[in-house]
Amino acid sequence: xxxxxxxxxxxxxxxxxxxxxxxxAGLTLVFGVMDxxxxxxxxxxxxxxxxxxxxxxxxxxFLPALVLALAATLAFGLLLEFAVFRxxxxxxxxxxxxxxxxxxxxxxxxxxxxxxxxxxxxxxxELFSGSVKLADGLxxxxxxxxxxxxxxxxxxxxxxxxxxxxxxxxxxxxxxNAAMVSALGVNIRRLFMIVFGFGAMLAGxxxxxxxxxxxxxxxxxxxxxxxxxxxxxxxGIGSIRxxxxxxxxxxxxxxxGRSFSVDILRLVMGPSPARTVGPAIASMxxxxxxxxxxxxxxxxLFPAKGR
Length: 307
Known about the structure:
Elements: H1 3-34, H2 41-59, H3 62-83, H4 93-115, E1 131-135, E2 138-141, H5 142-164, H6 166-183, H7 188-210, H8 220-235, H9 240-265, H10 271-296
Antiparallel strand pairs: 1-2
Helix pairs in contact: 1-5, 1-6, 1-7, 1-8, 1-9, 2-3, 2-4, 2-7, 2-8, 3-7, 5-6, 8-9, 9-10
């Protein structure tokens, strides 16, 4: 286990963590403020990537494609909230699950019809297409560092908005007691719409940023949605701080576990059993972590007040 490889995997874990945070931040607010289980949140991540590819082919430049894709993702999220989700708020969680699962199927099939089933790619911005030297013989892609920096910047901006603005105060109050906020004269439907649209845009931003690294394909949001739910369970429902800490923790545990589990197990067993057992244990690490956190703190690491 070399120090260079360890540093690279730490950075990869941070990259995964900030992407999970971008997805989980909106999801935890929607769940915390609206008590709404949105399984279709992952398709906003997928749509962000596909829209960025589409707008790049139209503009030929990454930055305009980024801006247009963000605006389109926000608009689509607001459209879904207006056309579908607001009619489900007063219904039970099973109806939420069934309806949003249907939207997943519909949109996954929809992108196949529009863009085809073959994987697509988004060209990396030329300015950030190189590598940076971290140490002697150790190069790391600049774009991955941009992804990490962008996620951390969004986390800081989210903290400022949620902790130090009026809309953030209403969101925090809604996460604690939405009925009381409504009784005080706040248009709770409008608050729900803002939270939902903003959460959709954050998920779309994550999809845009990862598109130059991973293939853009139907169903790409399904796996990250599962990880995002693990994030909000570990961090605490309705908590931005909890989502941030849990996302970074999961990103590091998952990345380091998959990279070094075999090497660690070789210290206590033979090479052949280690190669068999290591990947199996690595794939379960984040769920074991979730079970441990729930055993110690059933409401998560940093639950929203009142939960």
